[in-house]
Design brief:
Blueprint (H helix, E strand, L loop, with lengths): L16 H8 L13 H22 L13 E5 L7 H6 L3 E6 L2 H14 L4 E4 L10 E7 L8 H10 L1 E12 L3 H14 L15 H10 L2 E12 L3 E5 L5 E8 L1
Length: 249
Protein backbone atom coordinates (compact mmCIF):
# COMPACT_ATOMS: atom_id res chain seq x y z
CA UNK A 1 0.00 0.00 0.00
CA UNK A 2 1.50 3.31 -0.94
CA UNK A 3 0.54 6.68 -2.19
CA UNK A 4 3.74 7.51 -3.75
CA UNK A 5 7.23 8.59 -4.42
CA UNK A 6 9.04 11.50 -2.92
CA UNK A 7 12.61 11.69 -4.15
CA UNK A 8 15.44 10.47 -6.29
CA UNK A 9 18.54 8.49 -5.42
CA UNK A 10 20.46 11.67 -4.62
CA UNK A 11 18.16 12.71 -1.79
CA UNK A 12 18.26 10.62 1.40
CA UNK A 13 15.04 12.18 2.68
CA UNK A 14 12.87 10.33 0.15
CA UNK A 15 12.64 7.14 -1.87
CA UNK A 16 15.17 6.22 -4.51
CA UNK A 17 15.02 6.30 -8.30
CA UNK A 18 13.89 2.67 -8.53
CA UNK A 19 10.92 3.43 -6.28
CA UNK A 20 10.03 6.47 -8.39
CA UNK A 21 10.12 4.40 -11.55
CA UNK A 22 8.03 1.64 -9.96
CA UNK A 23 5.20 3.99 -8.98
CA UNK A 24 5.52 6.11 -12.10
CA UNK A 25 4.57 3.06 -14.17
CA UNK A 26 1.29 2.87 -12.22
CA UNK A 27 0.32 6.49 -12.83
CA UNK A 28 -2.09 5.97 -15.71
CA UNK A 29 -4.15 3.54 -13.64
CA UNK A 30 -4.06 5.45 -10.36
CA UNK A 31 -7.64 6.75 -10.47
CA UNK A 32 -9.14 3.42 -11.53
CA UNK A 33 -10.76 1.98 -8.36
CA UNK A 34 -10.44 -1.52 -9.80
CA UNK A 35 -6.93 -1.11 -11.15
CA UNK A 36 -3.46 -1.46 -9.68
CA UNK A 37 -4.23 1.19 -7.04
CA UNK A 38 -7.49 -0.41 -5.92
CA UNK A 39 -6.05 -0.93 -2.44
CA UNK A 40 -5.50 2.81 -2.03
CA UNK A 41 -9.10 3.50 -2.98
CA UNK A 42 -10.20 1.07 -0.27
CA UNK A 43 -7.89 2.77 2.23
CA UNK A 44 -9.14 6.29 1.58
CA UNK A 45 -12.34 6.20 3.69
CA UNK A 46 -10.60 5.29 6.99
CA UNK A 47 -7.69 7.57 6.15
CA UNK A 48 -10.02 10.51 5.61
CA UNK A 49 -11.99 9.61 8.73
CA UNK A 50 -8.80 9.75 10.79
CA UNK A 51 -7.66 12.96 9.15
CA UNK A 52 -10.99 14.67 9.79
CA UNK A 53 -11.05 13.47 13.41
CA UNK A 54 -7.57 14.79 14.13
CA UNK A 55 -8.14 18.08 12.28
CA UNK A 56 -11.30 18.76 14.28
CA UNK A 57 -9.57 17.83 17.54
CA UNK A 58 -6.46 19.90 16.84
CA UNK A 59 -8.23 23.08 15.79
CA UNK A 60 -11.35 22.51 17.91
CA UNK A 61 -13.37 22.69 14.73
CA UNK A 62 -17.04 22.39 13.90
CA UNK A 63 -17.56 18.69 13.17
CA UNK A 64 -20.49 19.59 10.91
CA UNK A 65 -18.46 21.90 8.67
CA UNK A 66 -17.76 20.82 5.12
CA UNK A 67 -14.59 22.93 5.00
CA UNK A 68 -12.73 22.49 8.30
CA UNK A 69 -9.41 23.35 6.59
CA UNK A 70 -10.56 26.68 5.15
CA UNK A 71 -7.76 29.19 5.52
CA UNK A 72 -5.17 26.47 6.18
CA UNK A 73 -2.18 25.48 4.04
CA UNK A 74 -1.77 21.72 3.61
CA UNK A 75 1.14 19.69 2.26
CA UNK A 76 0.64 16.18 0.85
CA UNK A 77 4.14 14.70 0.62
CA UNK A 78 4.39 11.68 -1.66
CA UNK A 79 1.00 12.44 -3.20
CA UNK A 80 0.93 9.92 -6.04
CA UNK A 81 -1.81 10.96 -8.45
CA UNK A 82 -3.74 12.92 -5.83
CA UNK A 83 -6.11 10.48 -4.10
CA UNK A 84 -5.61 12.37 -0.85
CA UNK A 85 -4.74 15.79 -2.27
CA UNK A 86 -8.17 16.27 -3.84
CA UNK A 87 -10.13 15.54 -0.62
CA UNK A 88 -7.83 17.97 1.23
CA UNK A 89 -8.75 20.64 -1.29
CA UNK A 90 -12.46 19.84 -0.93
CA UNK A 91 -12.07 20.24 2.84
CA UNK A 92 -11.06 23.84 2.15
CA UNK A 93 -7.25 23.68 2.29
CA UNK A 94 -4.82 25.48 0.03
CA UNK A 95 -3.00 22.31 -1.05
CA UNK A 96 0.57 21.77 -2.20
CA UNK A 97 1.29 18.18 -3.25
CA UNK A 98 4.69 16.72 -4.11
CA UNK A 99 5.77 13.52 -5.83
CA UNK A 100 9.06 12.45 -7.43
CA UNK A 101 7.47 10.64 -10.38
CA UNK A 102 6.58 13.07 -13.19
CA UNK A 103 4.00 10.55 -14.46
CA UNK A 104 2.16 10.72 -11.15
CA UNK A 105 2.09 14.51 -11.14
CA UNK A 106 0.91 14.54 -14.75
CA UNK A 107 -2.00 12.25 -13.86
CA UNK A 108 -2.75 14.30 -10.74
CA UNK A 109 -2.84 17.60 -12.61
CA UNK A 110 -5.06 16.20 -15.35
CA UNK A 111 -7.55 14.75 -12.87
CA UNK A 112 -7.69 17.90 -10.75
CA UNK A 113 -8.31 20.00 -13.85
CA UNK A 114 -11.09 17.67 -14.95
CA UNK A 115 -12.92 18.04 -11.64
CA UNK A 116 -12.23 21.76 -11.23
CA UNK A 117 -9.82 21.70 -8.29
CA UNK A 118 -6.85 24.05 -7.91
CA UNK A 119 -3.92 22.15 -6.38
CA UNK A 120 -0.26 23.15 -6.51
CA UNK A 121 1.27 19.90 -7.76
CA UNK A 122 5.07 19.77 -7.87
CA UNK A 123 7.50 17.20 -9.22
CA UNK A 124 10.30 16.68 -6.72
CA UNK A 125 11.19 15.85 -3.16
CA UNK A 126 11.00 17.49 0.22
CA UNK A 127 13.38 20.01 -1.33
CA UNK A 128 10.45 21.20 -3.45
CA UNK A 129 8.98 22.89 -0.38
CA UNK A 130 12.22 23.90 1.35
CA UNK A 131 11.71 27.08 3.32
CA UNK A 132 7.91 26.80 3.19
CA UNK A 133 5.70 25.89 6.12
CA UNK A 134 2.23 24.39 6.29
CA UNK A 135 -0.50 24.18 8.90
CA UNK A 136 -1.15 20.54 8.01
CA UNK A 137 1.51 18.13 6.75
CA UNK A 138 0.30 14.71 5.62
CA UNK A 139 2.34 11.77 4.35
CA UNK A 140 0.39 8.53 4.21
CA UNK A 141 2.05 5.21 3.32
CA UNK A 142 5.29 6.86 2.21
CA UNK A 143 7.93 6.69 4.94
CA UNK A 144 8.36 2.93 4.46
CA UNK A 145 9.78 3.69 1.01
CA UNK A 146 12.49 6.15 2.02
CA UNK A 147 16.15 5.11 2.42
CA UNK A 148 16.63 7.41 5.42
CA UNK A 149 13.51 7.67 7.57
CA UNK A 150 15.22 10.00 10.04
CA UNK A 151 16.11 12.53 7.34
CA UNK A 152 12.60 12.31 5.92
CA UNK A 153 10.95 12.98 9.29
CA UNK A 154 13.34 15.87 9.92
CA UNK A 155 12.37 17.41 6.57
CA UNK A 156 8.66 17.01 7.30
CA UNK A 157 9.11 18.61 10.72
CA UNK A 158 10.85 21.58 9.08
CA UNK A 159 7.77 22.04 6.88
CA UNK A 160 5.38 22.20 9.84
CA UNK A 161 4.25 25.69 10.83
CA UNK A 162 4.01 26.68 14.49
CA UNK A 163 0.76 25.32 15.85
CA UNK A 164 0.53 22.89 12.95
CA UNK A 165 -0.40 19.22 12.74
CA UNK A 166 1.56 16.35 11.16
CA UNK A 167 -0.19 13.13 10.16
CA UNK A 168 1.64 9.97 9.06
CA UNK A 169 0.60 6.42 8.30
CA UNK A 170 2.77 3.39 7.65
CA UNK A 171 2.78 -0.40 8.01
CA UNK A 172 4.06 -1.85 11.26
CA UNK A 173 6.99 -4.28 11.10
CA UNK A 174 5.23 -7.37 12.38
CA UNK A 175 4.69 -10.94 11.17
CA UNK A 176 1.09 -9.97 10.34
CA UNK A 177 2.10 -7.13 8.02
CA UNK A 178 4.64 -9.35 6.26
CA UNK A 179 2.06 -12.06 5.72
CA UNK A 180 -0.83 -9.79 4.74
CA UNK A 181 0.91 -7.15 2.65
CA UNK A 182 3.78 -9.00 1.01
CA UNK A 183 3.14 -12.74 1.04
CA UNK A 184 -0.59 -12.48 0.33
CA UNK A 185 -1.38 -9.06 -1.19
CA UNK A 186 1.68 -8.84 -3.44
CA UNK A 187 1.60 -12.58 -4.05
CA UNK A 188 -1.89 -12.55 -5.52
CA UNK A 189 -1.56 -9.17 -7.22
CA UNK A 190 -3.73 -7.06 -4.93
CA UNK A 191 -0.67 -4.83 -4.57
CA UNK A 192 1.91 -4.63 -7.38
CA UNK A 193 4.89 -6.89 -6.74
CA UNK A 194 7.95 -5.11 -5.37
CA UNK A 195 5.94 -2.37 -3.68
CA UNK A 196 7.17 -3.12 -0.15
CA UNK A 197 10.37 -4.00 1.69
CA UNK A 198 9.31 -5.37 5.06
CA UNK A 199 12.69 -4.59 6.62
CA UNK A 200 12.00 -0.88 6.08
CA UNK A 201 8.70 -0.93 7.98
CA UNK A 202 8.78 1.03 11.26
CA UNK A 203 7.23 0.10 14.57
CA UNK A 204 5.20 2.77 16.40
CA UNK A 205 7.96 3.11 19.00
CA UNK A 206 10.58 3.63 16.30
CA UNK A 207 8.53 6.26 14.52
CA UNK A 208 7.69 8.02 17.78
CA UNK A 209 11.40 8.17 18.54
CA UNK A 210 12.21 9.70 15.15
CA UNK A 211 9.50 12.30 15.62
CA UNK A 212 10.77 13.16 19.10
CA UNK A 213 14.29 13.60 17.75
CA UNK A 214 12.86 16.01 15.16
CA UNK A 215 11.27 18.13 17.90
CA UNK A 216 7.76 16.72 17.60
CA UNK A 217 5.44 15.07 20.09
CA UNK A 218 3.00 12.29 19.20
CA UNK A 219 -0.51 13.13 20.43
CA UNK A 220 -2.35 10.15 18.98
CA UNK A 221 -1.65 6.68 17.57
CA UNK A 222 -4.35 4.61 15.87
CA UNK A 223 -4.37 1.27 14.15
CA UNK A 224 -5.61 0.51 10.65
CA UNK A 225 -7.05 -2.99 10.56
CA UNK A 226 -8.79 -5.22 8.04
CA UNK A 227 -11.58 -7.73 8.32
CA UNK A 228 -13.70 -9.39 5.62
CA UNK A 229 -16.85 -7.95 7.18
CA UNK A 230 -15.70 -4.38 7.79
CA UNK A 231 -12.90 -3.97 5.25
CA UNK A 232 -10.23 -1.48 6.25
CA UNK A 233 -11.19 0.37 9.42
CA UNK A 234 -9.72 2.34 12.30
CA UNK A 235 -9.00 0.29 15.41
CA UNK A 236 -6.81 0.05 18.51
CA UNK A 237 -4.78 -2.71 16.87
CA UNK A 238 -1.60 -1.37 15.24
CA UNK A 239 -0.22 -4.76 14.14
CA UNK A 240 -0.97 -4.25 10.44
CA UNK A 241 -0.75 -0.52 9.81
CA UNK A 242 -1.12 2.60 11.91
CA UNK A 243 -1.49 6.38 11.98
CA UNK A 244 0.28 8.90 14.16
CA UNK A 245 -0.58 12.54 14.80
CA UNK A 246 2.19 14.83 16.00
CA UNK A 247 2.70 18.45 16.96
CA UNK A 248 5.70 20.55 17.94
CA UNK A 249 7.00 19.51 21.35
Amino acid sequence: MTDATVTTATNPDGIDAREAAHFGKLAADWWNPRGSSAMLHRLNPPRLAYLRERVDAHWDGDTASFTPLKGKRALDMGCGAGLLSEPLARLGADVTAVDAAPENIGAARAHAAAVGLLIDYRVGTTDAVAGETYDLVVSFEVIEHVPDARAFVTALAASLAPGGLLLLSTPNRTPLSKLAMITVAEGVGQIPRGTHDWDKFLTPDELTGLLADAGLRVVDTRGLSFSPAAGFHLSDNTALDYFVAAVRA
